[in-house]
Amino acid sequence: MMPDIKANIDAVRHEIERTCKHVDTAINQPKLIAVSKVQPIEKVRAALEAGHRVFGENRVQEAEERWGELKPDYKDVELHLIGGLQTNKASNAVALFDVIHSVDRLKLAKALAGEMEKQGKKLPVYIQVNTGREEQKGGCALEELPELLAGCKALGLEVVGLMCIPPANEDPTMHFALLKKLAKRHGLPRLSMGMSGDYALAAAMGATDIRVGTAIFGARDYR
Questions:
Q1: pLDDT band at 3 (very low <50, low <70, confident <90, very high)
Q2: Nearest CA to 184 among 205, 214, 153?
Q3: What's the CATH superfamily of 5-11+28-216?
Q4: Would the pTM of this model clear 0.70, i.e. be above it?
Q5: pLDDT at residue 28 above 70?
Q6: Are the CB atoms for 35 and 55 separated by under 8 Å?
Q7: What are the DSSP calls for 8-58, one per residue?
Q8: What is d(CA 213, CA 223) in angstroms, rounded to the nearest whole number?
Q9: Whole-Å CA distances, 101 to 23, 115, 161
Q10: Mean pLDDT of 190-213
Q11: In which band, very low, low, confident or very high, does the pLDDT at 80 lie, cut at 50, 70 and 90?
Q12: Rounded to whole angstroms, how far apart are CA atoms 80 and 77?
């Protein structure tokens, strides 16, 4: 049985709005990014029919297959790449996406800058920070952030903010606080943080972009 996607979107939006009003930390509500990775196309279409237009994908190839079918009918969709990106997929990513959240090394920044110049596009990007120092997870190390940020700016990339994915077994509070502190230190206005299990907390702590998947679409089936 398919979940009521519109009701779920409304519920998430309401909780974000309620939280922001309660803590009085956000003048503008965070952007809600519906994470559609591994979700069947009928669920994504239901979100589109409910009026939602901002979506996040983890993998370039999967996004190309899904949105190649959907985007002609919904030309106002805004696509965010929130997963790790290999340099050999930079061309495809620049062609398809509107925002990239996962820049975490200079080699990738150079590949993206080259493709943006080649394609005549200038996409806003976020630097992903590995706040939990997890070896298996993407993101630059804390001590590498200043150098990577300087390198991105030298390449002409429009770095608008920072992104993090806290460790699953830790309280995300300290990770959100750290990301906010780093963004403020470097004069970056946007914070991409918060997922289905902690989006209200992220909103309370100043997130500008919140990435919500299962709370909207239901559990993913990876079979």
A1: confident
A2: 205
A3: Alanine racemase (3.20.20.10)
A4: yes
A5: no
A6: yes
A7: HHHHHHHHHHHHHHHHT--SSPPEEEEE-TT--HHHHHHHHHTT--EEEES
A8: 17
A9: 26, 16, 9
A10: 95
A11: very high
A12: 10
